[in-house]
Amino acid sequence: MKTGCSWRSLPHDFPYWSTMYGYFNRWSKDGTWQWIHAEFVQEVRKSMKRKKQPSAASLDSQSRRTTACEGEHRSYDGGKNVKGRKRFVLTDTQGLLLAVWICAAGVSEKAEPMQLLRYIKQVPCLHQLCSPIELVWAAAAR
Length: 142
Known about the structure:
The chain contains four helices and five strands. The protein is an alpha+beta fold. Strands 1, 2, 3, 4 and 5 form a five-stranded mixed beta sheet that branches. A hairpin with a 4-residue loop joins strand 2 and strand 3.
């Protein structure tokens, strides 16, 4: 808690920090984290006596303030009076996270969810997890 998520401050019983970072970086790029997440969602749903893949989901967005040094996707959301980023979050009816799309805060709440859907179609494990969805509840866009 004191140092946040500094790689060099990992506990001594972990492998060397550069080894841990190497795995994290590789798994982030090759989709391993997404595959692990999709498997966990399916197992949790199964333990709740639900089908492994959801048939309904909920989509909403949230704009968050960011500083100028926190990356490239940053703009002003006039509706929410926030300069930063917007995240579109898709969850199942149990509240389990299915997919997230992050973009500049000033993007349209009508058009940008299509980017999330394109992203889901491009990532095989997300496509497999979300393909049975027939109904999506979404907040009204301004």
